[in-house]
Specification:
α2 packs across α3. The chain is built from 13 helices and five strands. The protein has about 325 residues and is mainly α. The chain has a three-stranded antiparallel sheet. The longest helix has about 35 residues.
């Protein structure tokens, strides 16, 4: 009875510091770009196998994030990043974490970032179309003009929340947590110690072992992904001019076939433009139109975007 009574003894709540909650937010924001770097690397090595992941990366990450965050919210009461730093979510009113709180937390952690990223990419595409002289509906033009102001307002609200949390005016540091009426507190220690002898004697369930192994693997992956993000920052990349120049790729069968002609329209190049990931040269209008719909080189099928285009000046343009 004493063991059970220990679980209902109220614990003294200690408010996490601003640095701890910001570290959790920073780690949560690291997952998307860090995993994308891994996917980009795999697509470079095996474009035919992993090229689709680059094109549909947002959907792939949505699936990964749904499974990961859903598991941690259900079993531990917080996101992967929050649990990694020993934090958990609790209601500011009832000091519990109900099913309703879990569902709303899942929506905010998984679906809202996906929708925001899709909206931002759509606005960037509409802006590029407008700058290229294409007709854009007035509502889309207004949307991509207002998006930077909306982002600035949100960042301002975040800053106000940080200062309020630091000054003990509010109980939560995040606007999303403030809307959900949730706060962060320290995760209660739940030691599940077991040895290989317990495993051999059947004292430990397989589900317990798998859950513990999954938790440790995800925590190690979180650290590894954060390290990748740090390693790839511009401050640590160094001077690219000091790197050795790689050898030119061997010409394939299509090199002679498309010599001096655009592989799309099969005519002489008009504003010759090269795709940096493959080296093939196209007419500017042909390749831009193609990449807006396909997002890959027409000849090699390597993943590519408009940002991978390089203009070629032949000296014939007067």
């Amino acid at each position: 009875m004493a063991a059970k009574g220990a679980h209902i003894t109220p614990n003294v709540e200690v408010k996490p510091s601003l640095f701890e909650v910001l570290a959790a937010d920073s780690l949560n924001g690291t997952f998307y770009p860090a995993i994308k770097r891994v996917v980009d690397f795999l697509a470079t090595v095996k474009p035919t196998v992993f090229g689709g992941l680059v094109r549909y990366y947002d959907e792939f990450y949505l699936l990964f994030n749904s499974l990961t965050q859903g598991y941690y919210i259900k079993h531990y009461g917080g996101s992967l990043a929050e649990i990694f730093y020993g934090l958990t979510r609790t209601s500011l009113r009832s000091k519990t974490f109900t099913t309703k709180d879990r569902n709303w937390s899942f929506l905010v952690l998984v679906l809202v970032p996906y929708i925001v990223r899709k909206l931002e990419k759509a606005c960037e595409r509409w802006k590029e179309d407008y700058e290229n002289g294409k007709h854009i509906p007035a509502n889309r033009k207004l949307l991509y003009h207002l998006l930077p102001y909306a982002r600035a307002c949100y960042e301002s609200v975040k800053l106000i929340n940080y200062v309020s949390y630091l000054a003990n005016v509010t109980q939560t540091h995040s606007p999303s947590l403030q809307i959900l009426r949730l706060g962060l507190t320290y995760l209660p220690e739940q030691e599940e110690s077991w040895s290989f002898r317990d495993v051999l004697h059947g004292k430990v369930r397989v589900a317990t072992m798998l859950s513990s192994a999954l938790l440790r693997w995800l925590e190690l992956s979180a650290f590894f992904l954060q390290f990748i993000e740090w390693w790839q920052t511009e401050a640590n990349i160094g001077d690219l001019s000091k790197l050795p120049i790689p050898d030119a790729p061997e010409p394939d069968a299509n090199a002679a076939k498309y010599a001096n002609v655009c592989p799309i329209c099969l005519q002489k190049h008009i504003i010759p433009t090269a795709v940096s990931v493959s080296g093939y040269v196209y007419c500017y209008r042909c390749i831009v139109t193609h990449l807006q719909s396909e997002s890959r080189c027409p000849v090699t099928k390597y993943p590519a975007t408009i940002n991978d285009l390089i203009g070629i000046f032949t000296g014939d343009d007067d």
